[in-house]
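In this section we walk through a basic example: taking a raw amino acid sequence and producing a predicted 3D structure, encoded as discrete structure tokens. The instruction is simple. Fold the sequence below.
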Amino acid sequence: MRRYLAAATCLTLLAACTSTQGGTASPRSSATEPVTSPTTSVSNSTTPSSSRPREIKLDGKKPCELMTAEQLAAIAPTTAPRPDTSSTFKSPNCSFNATGAVWRITTVVTEGMEVWTSGKRQGRPTEIPPITGFPAITVTLPTDQVLCNIAVDVANGQYLYAGFEVSDGFADKFPKPCDGARMVAEAAMQNLMR
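The resulting token sequence is shown next.
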């Protein structure tokens, strides 16, 4: 009887660990892997696997208006947002500063997200679960543990770019960089969807 009970327990555990999703299992090999929230998973693919549910054109959108006061307060008290133009993307940008962290939103209207996945831009793109249904990637540098960026594919030739950086000595006061970048991207996308 004990053998049958042990065999049934093993089969139950084995069935619980079985997935119908295809792919190759591999361990996270280093601390440079992008970090996501506990409810999300990370793929090593560099091409988003799903398409946009619709297009959201970013022309004329003001990045400083893409987070509400409540959304900002959920991360940390901030100074006044600072709008400017990103010299890298030649697109509208906004920086939000708090003691120990900074986050940015850029409405990139000069190129599509494929510049990251095709290797035209420097950074390590990794597909992440969609944000409000839109394909998204993290963009990290293996040598930089304090900064994470997320690109969200919103329209042909355009994407939302959210970055989150935590200063040394403040890691215990803020989300991990990729978790923070996801919070910023999710907040901005919620407001873009309205």
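Looking at the output, two observations stand out. Residues 1-49 have pLDDT under 50 and may be disordered. The longest strand covers residues 147-155. In the next section we compare this with other chains.
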